[in-house]
Amino acid sequence: MYLVTAQEMRDLESYTINQLGIPGHVLMESAGRAVVDQIVKRFPNPKRVVVLAGTGNNGGDGFVVARWLAFRGWEVDLWLIGSAVKLTSDAKLYYHACEQLLSIHHAEKESEASLQAHLMMCDVIVDAMLGIGYSGMLREPFTSIVQWINQHAESYIFAVDMPTGVEADKGHVFPVALRVDETITFNCPKWGHYLLPGSKYCGKLKVVDIGITPAGHTKALTPNARLNDPNDWNMYLGGRKQWAHKGTYGHVLIIGGAKGTLGAVAMAGEAAYRMGSGLVTLTVPESQHEALAAKVTQEMIWSWPGKDHFLPEIAEELKTAFQRYDAVVCGPGLGRFPGEVRFIKEILQTVKRPLVLDADALNILAEHPHLMQFRANDCPTILTPHPGEMARLLRITTEEVERKRAAVALQLAYQTRSVVILKGRYTIIAFPDGKRVVNTTGSPALAKAGSGDILSGIIGSLLAQEIPVESAIQIAVYIHGRLGEEVDAHSALYRDLLDHIASIRQLLEPTNSPGN
Ligand SMILES: NC(=O)C1=CN([C@@H]2O[C@H](COP(=O)(O)OP(=O)(O)OC[C@H]3O[C@@H](n4cnc5c(N)ncnc54)[C@H](OP(=O)(O)O)[C@@H]3O)[C@@H](O)[C@H]2O)[C@@H](O)CC1
Ligand SMILES: [K+]
Questions:
Q1: pLDDT at 202 over 90
Q2: Where does the source fall among the domains of life (predicted)?
């Protein structure tokens, strides 16, 4: 499913109205009806509702909702927030229809206390004040109404398209937005539903069709962002081939393992095996070999000569060694060590297969951005920063990363010619060609040490299995998020996450794919 900006949504709407000849008020009627369908799905028996309608087309949807809820026997209090002279022509049509059926309250003319009393007494609030047309600093009277509802209202709140105060493109909230239980949006989700802080206000998101031309219908109407959708890649998750041998599903190399962080490289290795790779090798400095060998069973270990540091004279040896692997992950528990810059340079230059850089490999890159020039353009590189690592890579604050997640992920993808996986609630995957994919799976269980190592291992495994890079990354991020949903958010250990890989993978496999 595509993810759109307000402008892309307007383009789809105007194509539908101007090219296909479907009047805007028909779309508005469908929009309002679709919202009512969702409301009555949640509340099959008539309730008392306050509908708050603005003067733009979002308000127009609100008038349609008020009319249909009244037809269905609901007790409707309809409030116009703003001046009736400002109503758009489509909104005006439905405002007049409501005038025939209901007495419309005008917030301009009535006291705040009167509105508050109605809001206190209702079971349901419908927020049709502002939608994708909102931008900038939220003005009065919306600010006061929103603040009051957030603090006092106990009713169930539906937002039409966007919660009032959440900006559609960047998810900005200046200074407040309405905290709702459900948001019903039209045709496509908007970026603001998935970006912080806006995403925290949306509650459950439901996307409904209202007759607007679907995104992607023509090239001109094709956005470059999507939600991570298993239908785009589940064809790569077929059953295991009957005649497979251990090389069939790729050989992953995981480079990491400084003293004290050997667990990270071991977890990444275990995740790679669980995701299906036939061979996994872990590599650590020689001084850590024994300690790692005591920790792992199934993984092979290859250690480079050196005592917690990299010796330039072994560069040639590394070059030969790196050719053996189908995908390389560098970073889990890597630590910092003398010779690290040369080490990363050798890896970037020598590994011709897909390369995932994580953890301290990213920190080294952040301090030495010139290193990326040693990576050939045709060798896929994947960077997996969390917001702190991203901040270091771009030399901005973590707060700025969180505020501009979609933009900064793309910036780093362009700068480094790499695929960037910016981790967090709604992980964003940005590709160097400008495409972006937003992942919706995940849970707070993943906010724990080890979670990133597991993700790296899963990505490495899928890349080694020669699944196309774009798909491999989307599969990995999606499955990793699903693992978090399967376990207890507080107590889960990395093993609990790994235990669910098989069942989630099976659920995602397309039916009738026995392998061959
Ligand atoms: N797209 C579609 O396909 C379809 C869209 N539909 C619906 O239309 C909605 C979009 O309608 P829209 O374009 O009229 O904008 P909308 O959200 O009502 O906001 C405009 C109002 O916001 C106000 N305003 C702005 N900034 C503000 C601020 N900082 N603080 C305070 N106020 C501010 C602005 O006031 P002004 O700046 O003009 O004084 C104006 O009054 C969309 O979300 C969906 O629900 C469906 O009906 C059918 C198909
Ligand atoms: K709204």
A1: yes
A2: Bacteria
In this structure, what CATH number is given to the domain that contains residue 31? 3.40.50.10260
Considering only CA atoms, which residue is closest to atom 37 of ligand 1? 134
Ligand located closest to 164 CA: 2
513, part of any domain? no
CB 41 within 8 A of CB 56: no
Encode pLDDT of 391-427 as tens digits: 999 999 999 999 999 999 999 999 999 999 999 989 9
Structure confidence at residue 513 as a pLDDT band (50, 70, 90): low
Ligand 1 pocket, residues with Cβ under 6 angstroms: 9-10, 13, 27-28, 31, 54-61, 88, 130-139, 142, 160-161, 186, 212
Number of domains forming the structure of the chain: 2
Whether the pLDDT of residue 514 is over 70: the answer is: no
CATH code at 278?
3.40.1190.20
276 is in an annotated binding site: no
HSE-CB at 60 with a 13 A cutoff on CA atoms is: 20
Residues 6+ positions from 512 with CB-CB distance below 8 Å = none
**Cis amide bond preceding 141, omega within 30:** yes
User: Percent of the chain scored above 90 by pLDDT?
Assistant: 82
Nearest-ligand number for the alpha carbon of 65: 1
Give yes or no for residue 321 having a pLDDT over 70: yes
